[in-house]
Task: inverse folding
């Protein structure tokens, strides 16, 4: 069951919390309205009998008019109490259900906004497999021509004697100067070809070699040459596996804290005693695992752009919480208006029934007078003119009855549509006379007692919703004002890491357990200062927030004036209705006295039947005016309570049929044990 339905049921079931003293007096034939368990409400059997007697006029009038073909109405009827009508309207009203779902939507929005500050756990894994392969390229390269020397000729490559080479063989050394023969004997000779010629290319003095000898002559030009683009890895394929685990936490003041642990598997083999002078190898072992841990965080400096109220995430949470209140006030407002519609149509239906009953009674009396006129004519005591006048007055009363029956049909159909009833039936009000016989008191314009309802304007759901909109606008302005400040953020990071280029670990647990034995560590601390030039966007947003506050404040004042005006208007209408009740009661007593006197004088032959029927018409008008004044008083009270949002709160007392029930409901409401329509559970 949705929230509005639960609250509605709580208010309507208030009378069931403790059985009234008159419950035991309920007659077997007097059953509670459909859908409400027997014995749930305290009823007055005598009043119910009187009400059903008045409701019988509907069937009688419908049958009479149906015979004449003037009017047709459904034959089926159904009794309906005010509390049942209110409960049915709330349960079937789609607006109540739709607005009630807004709270659930806003609550989910709040959970989503608060989830930003939940820890975020990170798990990641990746693998890297790599290998190197040999590739040979043969690009074209410019090469200069070789230098040609004949056998026995010296080849100078520098200015020193060690830089002189000999083109020849051992037989040619003796013919060279003695100071050079020793260098030539050490190998500084270039062997000639079969033609006794040497083909060389002397290199600059900065080169690691003095010259390059060729087996044949080379002319200058472009020649292809072999170039190694890549080589196969001597260790084969390189495998790297990395796993990452971390947690990130946003701080409520606008900062964040991150902890990350990364462990890596990479092939690495270490040789024992690699620098042993004897070059002996004592074996190797695998150390593929290394890890690193990083702790980093950043936080805005207080009174800067993103600190606390300047954080957009905090703004989302605060506005979501306020929107929950708005959703509650919206539910209360819709329930309040729904109950006002039910009250207005229900009391209109009651008034239509009572006016129809009064008209039917007058028609019955008029028919009796017409019958007496007919007997007098048969005796020769009255003329045809007198009879025509009586018939005309009687037909006028029947026309009034027919019009009032049409008003009843309209009221019944309107209430049936409001309750979304599917069956074609005429609604008959029941259990209403106790409330109708006790006209509401008129609250004073100011003062204590009931007049304090006027001061409850601030508790009206419409006012509270507008007031919450102002609070939301003020909260948004706080964030927009903070966005105009410079952004100053302090940040820090500490990282410790292992490296298997120096010393790895044989397993992942050893690596993680020995993370404190790190190979390298780095610590960085910094402060970032940012301020946009001009910052026009933030200033425009702040100006927009100021305008929104002014707009919402004006709307709040407008709603307040509207509520006070509606309350005062309804209070004046109630005062007018109460005054009309007293005036019409005196007029009704006078009209009844005049009619009774005319009836007695008619029996004595002093006045005519026509005059008696005319007095009967005056009596009917007085009765209709009195009934309408009583109905207007009930409707005016409902409008007055609805204008300040108190109709749901007072509804339990309004539908109670006995004084004990009303006192019990008032006591429960005063102690907070009873939730009114649309209120969240306490």
Result:
């Amino acid at each position: 069951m949705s929230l509005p339905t639960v609250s509605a049921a709580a208010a309507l079931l208030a009378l069931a919390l403790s059985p009234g003293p008159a419950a035991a007096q309920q007659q077997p034939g007097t059953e509670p309205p459909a859908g409400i368990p027997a014995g749930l409400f305290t009823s007055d059997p005598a009043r119910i009998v009187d009400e059903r007697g008045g409701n019988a006029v509907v069937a009688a009038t419908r049958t009479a008019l149906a015979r004449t073909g003037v009017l047709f109405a459904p034959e089926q009827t159904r009794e309906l109490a005010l509390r049942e009508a209110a409960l049915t309207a709330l349960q079937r009203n789609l607006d109540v259900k739709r607005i009630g779902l807004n709270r659930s939507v806003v609550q989910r929005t709040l959970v989503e906004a608060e989830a930003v500050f939940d820890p975020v756990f990170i798990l990641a894994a990746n693998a890297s497999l790599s290998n190197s392969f040999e590739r040979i390229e043969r690009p074209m390269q410019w090469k200069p021509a070789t230098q040609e020397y004949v056998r026995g000729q010296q080849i100078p490559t520098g200015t020193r004697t060690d830089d002189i080479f000999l083109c020849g063989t051992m037989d040619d050394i003796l013919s060279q100067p003695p100071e050079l023969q020793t260098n030539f004997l050490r190998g500084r000779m270039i062997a000639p070809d079969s033609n006794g010629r040497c083909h060389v290319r002397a290199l600059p003095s900065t080169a690691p070699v003095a010259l390059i000898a060729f087996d044949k002559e080379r002319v200058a030009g472009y020649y292809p040459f072999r170039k190694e683009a890549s080589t196969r890895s001597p260790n084969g394929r390189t495998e790297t596996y990395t796993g990452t685990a971390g947690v990130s936490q946003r701080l409520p003041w606008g900062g964040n804290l991150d902890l990350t642990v990364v462990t890596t598997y990479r092939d690495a083999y270490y040789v024992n005693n690699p620098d042993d002078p004897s070059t002996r190898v004592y074996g190797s072992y695998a150390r593929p695992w290394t890890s690193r841990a990083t702790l980093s965080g950043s936080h805005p400096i207080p009174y800067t752009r993103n600190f606390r109220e300047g954080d957009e995430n905090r703004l989302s949470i605060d506005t979501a919480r306020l929107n929950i209140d708005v959703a509650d006030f919206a539910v209360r407002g819709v329930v309040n208006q729904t109950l006002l519609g039910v009250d207005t149509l229900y009391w209109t239906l009651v008034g239509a029934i009572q006016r129809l009953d009064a008209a039917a009674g007058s028609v019955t009396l008029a028919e009796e007078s017409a019958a007496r006129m007919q007997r007098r004519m048969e005796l020769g005591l009255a003329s045809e003119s007198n009879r025509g006048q009586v018939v005309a007055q009687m037909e006028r009363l029947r026309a009034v009855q027919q019009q009032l029956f049409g008003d009843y049909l309209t009221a019944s159909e309107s209430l049936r549509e409001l309750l979304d009833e599917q069956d074609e039936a005429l609604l008959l009000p029941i259990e209403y006379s106790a409330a109708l016989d006790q006209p509401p008191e008129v609250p004073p314009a100011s003062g204590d007692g009931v007049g304090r309802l006027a001061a409850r304007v601030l508790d009206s759901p419409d006012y509270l919703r507008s007031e919450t909109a102002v609070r939301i606008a003020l909260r948004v302005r706080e964030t927009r004002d903070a966005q105009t400040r410079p952004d100053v953020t302090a940040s820090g990071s500490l990282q410790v890491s292992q490296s298997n280029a120096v010393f790895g670990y044989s397993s992942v647990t050893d690596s993680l357990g020995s993370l404190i034995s790190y190979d390298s560590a780095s610590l960085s601390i910094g402060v970032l200062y940012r301020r946009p030039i001009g910052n026009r966007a933030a200033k425009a947003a702040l100006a927009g927030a100021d305008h929104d506050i002014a707009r919402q404040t004006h709307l709040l004042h407008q709603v307040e004036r509207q509520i006070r005006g509606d309350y005062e208007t309804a209070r004046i209408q109630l005062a007018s209705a109460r005054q009309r009740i007293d005036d019409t009661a005196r007029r009704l007593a006078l009209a009844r006295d005049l009619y009774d006197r005319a009836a007695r004088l008619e029996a004595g032959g002093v006045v005519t039947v026509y005059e008696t029927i005319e007095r009967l018409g005056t009596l009917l008008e007085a009765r209709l005016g009195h009934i309408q004044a009583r109905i207007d008083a009930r409707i005016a009270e409902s409008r007055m309570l609805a204008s300040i949002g108190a109709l749901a709160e007072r509804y339990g007392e309004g539908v109670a049929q006995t004084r004990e029930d009303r006192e019990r409901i008032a006591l429960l409401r005063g102690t907070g044990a009873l939730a009114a329509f649309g209120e969240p559970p306490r």
Summary: The two ends are 17 Å apart (CA to CA). The chain has a mean pLDDT of 81. The first strand starts at residue 77 and ends at 81. The longest helix spans residues 536-603.
